[in-house]
Amino acid sequence: MALSRVCWARLAVWGSAVTPGHFFTRRLQLGRSGLAWGAPRSSKLHLSPKADVKNLMSYVVTKTKAINGKYHRFLGRHFPRFYVLYTIFMKGLQMLWADAKKARRIKTNMWKHNIKFHQLPYREMEHLRQFRQDVTKCLFLGIISIPPFANYLVFLLMYLFPRQLLIRHFWTPKQQTDFLDIYHAFRKRSHPEIISYLEKVIPLISDAGLRWHLTDLCTKIQRGTHPAIHDILALRECFSNHPLGVNQLQALHVKALSRAMLLTSYLPPPLLRHRLKTRTTVIHQLDKALAKLGIGQLTAQEVKSACYLRGLNSTHIGEDRCRTWLGEWLQISCSLKETELSLLLHNVVLLSTNYLGTRR
């Protein structure tokens, strides 16, 4: 009884300062405000699944870049020569992947709009041609790397024979110049052989005027004179049928032309003729597209690459001379019909052998 009286007395004193209504209203406000505060607190502490994945991926990418940077610095400090090869290899993979994506985009556009290869702009045509050539060269590496543990042998072969097995993306700048010189030396060896075959067929030409023009042209080239455009175009009829049409050429003549075009000469003559006609047709289509674009629109590297494809060793020639030579080539090529492409094929030798500035 005494304890209950004390409690009621204290409650009476406290109730004089805070009314019961105010007491219950305050408790209700606190309860409601607690509920209102609970939602934002949970939204901050518990992120959505998409946000969690995004933050995790950002963290992984940041850590990967940091580890990759440390790894590069370690290689550059302790293994400098290997680091150079590693850097070139990784950049080569990136460039090859970019080329593949661009080639796929071009092929997709061709399929959607029903566009043929010869209807493409020059740069897209050239990109597809070069990418096909690169993929063909990489095909051998892909085949020999199929067996288990053969990838170690592949890396060894790539290191020992970079010119034969690797494409230009994986060459150092010095290797690019040296390898292009080596390839041009290979095709230049066949030039005198091709000129001698032309001289041998002169008696087989029925027209006396054509015989004289071809004799004069061969003599000029053998004496070191660069032929004029009209000297070459005067022989259009001679190269459109017997004896200098592609289908009428002798087997040894076809093999020599294959070496001049950097194609293997160890295949049967019918297959070599097919490859020569295909390569010459592609170049002729490129020439028409380039004539529409204009040589002035090409960069210096594009000009040198175009000249090298057509038989000129442009690695040691100035840009202005390359543009002049390419203009002469286009003037001849755009004047020829499809039945006269044998002259364009021989033009790889006729127009490039004695051009000023080339290395002998």
UniProtKB/TrEMBL annotation:
InterPro entries cross-referenced by the UniProt entry:
LETM1-like_RBD, LETM1/MDM38-like
Q: Which PANTHER family match?
A: LETM1 DOMAIN-CONTAINING PROTEIN 1, LEUCINE ZIPPER-EF-HAND CONTAINING TRANSMEMBRANE PROTEIN
Please list the GO terms describing molecular function. Answer: ribosome binding
What is this protein's gene name? LETMD1
Q: Which UniProt keywords apply?
A: Membrane, Mitochondrion, Mitochondrion inner membrane, Transmembrane, Transmembrane helix
Q: Where are the transmembrane segments?
A: 138-161
Q: Where is it predominantly found?
A: mitochondrion
Q: Which residues form a coiled coil?
A: none
Where is the protein situated, by its record's location annotation?
Answer: Mitochondrion inner membrane
**PROSITE patterns (UniProt xref):** LETM1_RBD (PS51758)
Q: Where is the Letm1 RBD domain?
A: 186-360
Q: Record's GO cellular component, any one?
A: mitochondrial inner membrane
What is this protein's record name? LETM1 domain-containing protein 1 isoform 1
Can you tell which superkingdom this protein's organism belongs to? Eukaryota
Annotated membrane topology is: Single-pass membrane protein
